[in-house]
Amino acid sequence: MKKKLILIVCRGNITRSPFAEAVINRELKRHRLDDTFLAISRGTQGTSIDPVPVKFPNITFYKDEYRFSKPTLDKFKINITDRVSKPVDKKIVEQASLIMAVDQINKDRLLKLFPRFKNRIHKLSELINGDEDFTDPETVSGVKKHFIILSGIRDTIIKGFSKLLALANREEKN
Hints:
A 4-stranded parallel beta sheet has the order 2-1-3-4, sandwiched between helices. By secondary structure, the protein is of the alpha/beta class. The chain has a single domain (about 5-170), classed as Rossmann fold (3-Layer(aba) Sandwich), CATH 3.40.50. It is globular, with a radius of gyration of 15 Å. It is built from 6 helices and 4 strands; from the N terminus they run E-H-E-H-H-E-H-E-H-H.
């Protein structure tokens, strides 16, 4: 059986979406659903809507962002240092059963890039019936602010896990 793909998207695919990917995959494994679902992440940066590619391949090259995020990554035992940033493309969107944007800006970008798949595109905070945007860690300084962002993503996924599965299981006609 082919796994259902859950795609998480932020801007650069450096911190937020790789972190969410890791949390979702951990939850899938914990619930023994990792043979049915797989989470992956991508970014809108480097696409036609945000054409300048990311400067470096992963979080370790962004010294401040990594320094501020590392305590939270360590606390939650999440390693994203080997992740390589990739832009979202039509092929991966076509394969995805569910597409989760971490904020409204990236949801809007996805809807512009892939309007045919609008029924699969949601904002992460919708999992808990919220409308929160998870701020790009690149735009804030400090361990505490990075903890708030990443723990918010983690908590949203855990609290909204059953809704995530329900959305990923929906059969959409696009």
